[in-house]
Design a protein that fits this description.
Blueprint lengths: L1 H9 L3 E3 L6 E3 L1 H25 L9 H14 L1
Antiparallel strand pairs: 1-2
Length: 75
Amino acid sequence: MTYDLRRLRLHGIIERIPHSHRYQLMSDGLRIALFFSRTYARLLRPKLAQIMREAPPDASFLRTALDRLAPEIDA
């Protein structure tokens, strides 16, 4: 956890509250956190659901492309 907190602090996402073990988000950090959470919710989660093997077969463009790509990678 120390490593992750240090990286976030050095990138200007969080700042340490003096004389405590607490941190707070900086203004840019809040914007960055909102961007990544919204990107995950709107792009990554729906698209990953389309290509997962456990999911029911779907006729999406992404699933079709991945099904064609997988044998080429194996070859």
